[in-house]
Write a structure and sequence with these properties.
Number of domains: 1
Strand order of the largest sheet: 2-1-3-5-4
Bound molecules: iron/sulfur cluster
CATH superfamily: Uracil-DNA glycosylase-like domain
Shape: globular
Helix content: 40-55%
CATH topology: Uracil-DNA Glycosylase, subunit E
Distance between the termini: 18 Å
Order of helices and strands: HEHHEHEHHEEHHH
Number of helices: 9
Radius of gyration: 16 Å
Number of strands: 5
Structural class: alpha/beta
Length: 211
């Protein structure tokens, strides 16, 4: 399917998410948060769930954890606008609690379709819930974020060959200097080389098709 076909499929996906009532989280959300970024992005970041600011704005990672993510990206020379950013669940759990297994399952089809449309070469899972969800989607056994973080695994997700890595969620590192140091180390030593490798093999843009 060409880029234009993908755009159409993506628009349908976004409108389904915005009107979704598949799990109880729809009753307390202000806005569902599908995700954002270019559809030809080589790199996808997957967090846990929208928080308060995200729920109000309808955009992912716009609160204080989002600001930390922006600064981590800029520390490795990556523009936020060049990557696709989403969450495992698209609606805010009340009080920022963790999403339940049922909610993650109910929402999982949307993440699968995002991967199938965007076909990222690299996925960075932010936090335990995102790491566990993506490991399970890839048929891998999840033990803990401590053992998964900093490792890169080659997996197939929705028929797409992906290099998957897991690090801490920026929200967990906001008030924990030790975790923040490890998170910065993962961005520098693991995520930066992965992104560099993915962008060397650049994916075609709409302009390529129009040339
Ligand atoms: S969290 Fe996902 S499954 Fe639940 S209502 Fe929102 S979009 Fe639908």
């Amino acid at each position: 399917m060409g880029i234009k076909g993908n755009e159409h499929e993506y628009e349908i996906l976004v409108s389904e998410i915005l009107g979704c009532t598949r799990c109880p989280l729809h009753t307390s959300r202000t806005k569902a948060v599908p995700g954002e970024g270019p559809l030809n992005a080589s790199v996808m970041f997957v967090g846990e769930a929208p928080g308060r600011s995200e729920d109000l704005e309808g955009r992912p990672f716009v609160g204080s954890a989002g600001k930390l993510l922006d600064s981590l990206l800029s520390s490795i020379g990556v523009e936020r606008s060049s990557v696709y950013i989403t969450n495992v669940v698209k609606c805010r759990p009340p009080g920022n609690r963790e999403p339940s297994d049922e909610e993650v399952r109910a929402c999982n089809g949307y993440l699968r379709r995002q991967i199938s449309i965007i076909k990222p070469r690299v996925i960075v899972a932010l936090g335990r819930i995102a790491g566990r969800t993506l490991y399970e989607m890839a048929g891998l056994r999840w033990s803990s974020i401590r053992s998964a973080r900093g490792r890169v695994v080659r997996v197939k997700l929705e028929g797409v060959d992906v290099m998957l890595t897991v690090t801490y969620h920026p929200a967990a590192a906001l008030y924990n200097p030790g975790l923040r140091e490890e998170l910065e180390g993962d961005f520098r030593e693991v995520i930066a080389p992965l992104i560099k490798g993915a962008s060397v093999a650049r994916k075609p843009t709409l302009e390529d098709f129009l040339r």
